[in-house]
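Friendly challenge for the regulars: who can give me the structure tokens for this chain first? No prize, just bragging rights.
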Amino acid sequence: MSLYIITHNCESCWTRRVRQTASLMCNDCRIPMCDACSEKHKGQLGHRNFSSLVKQEPTKEEDSDYTYEDSDDEENKADKDAIKMSTLLLKEVSVKLPEEKDCKVTGLSAFTNEVSTLVADVENRMLKLFDNNLELKWTVPVTRDCVGVTVVSEKSFATIAGKKLQYWDVETNEDETIVPKMEEEVEINHTGFAVHSNGKYIGVLMSSDHQVQIFHLSCDEMQAIDLKTIANRAITPGFTLLLDSDLDRFYISDRDYVNGTKLLSVSFTGEVIWECPVPASVGGIAECDNLLFVVSIGYAKIHMITKDGMDVGTLVSDEGKLPFHICTQPLEKTLIVSHNFTGSDRNIIRVYNLEEILYEQEKFEKDDEEIELP
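First reply, four minutes later:
Bragging rights claimed.
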């Protein structure tokens, strides 16, 4: 019998933004790991309950009753109806400055008032703002553990750095130079992995503690939601969080390696509203109108899911680039994407036009409503 590997990424490596195929699953933590990380995990936490992700290929007799999780035929069939991202590309730019040897994007967010994009670069410990023409407007130094950024209002944004939620104001001096200034720093319970604001609240995802904390814009904690108690099963969150712009709910992924990974819509009271299957742990989620754009780690595609939980299509990277961080520019109807693991391409952010996709989706929903009318 030959062997094949179920291709999960090592999530310990992924927290360091390194892509490595996992070979073992820690059954206590429900985390896939490579050989090296599993040895460290055993030594640090004493966990010994591991299962192999290397499986025996079924015999011909068994194969007739066996369904492959990642069927190439199903993938190819789905990709035939997918939209090629290259046909939507508007512009691209390197966010690596001339004096920098490299850069590593760990967060993207967009200001709507002046149509500009905020980039978190963990390699150079810096936040960078690019205008609508993708020209650099300003930079501000941050600490090494600053891994996420989110725009809060026209003149403010928030970052997550270790166990601190940081709130920044963007001020303009008399000489019209723009100066970002940290106004407040709030201690949180555990290390934050993702941060997002919908303009009304700020949400922080703490993957290690399986918890989402929701804050008012004053940075006073409003609510802490324990992801271990919101469903009939233990939920293992992925690496990103999105607060809905209109409704009191948020979106996360559940890394269920037994029954399949899903995108979850969860109310602020901790109720799971819907679940939608996705191929792998979610690395990025963005929202524009009634559509969610979802990046599954290790896949050269972006799924489009409605706010009702319906998968309505796929954007596929026909050059084989792997999307990672994404955000949308609602006024411009554009999608902004970074690609982290393809050599020099990880320095690039690309802007894609969503107008036709959003128009077709709106038209479909109106037609659907008319059909349902008596």
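Residues 328 and 335 are 4 Å apart (CA to CA). Residues 1-6, 56-77 have pLDDT under 50 and may be disordered. Your move, everyone else.
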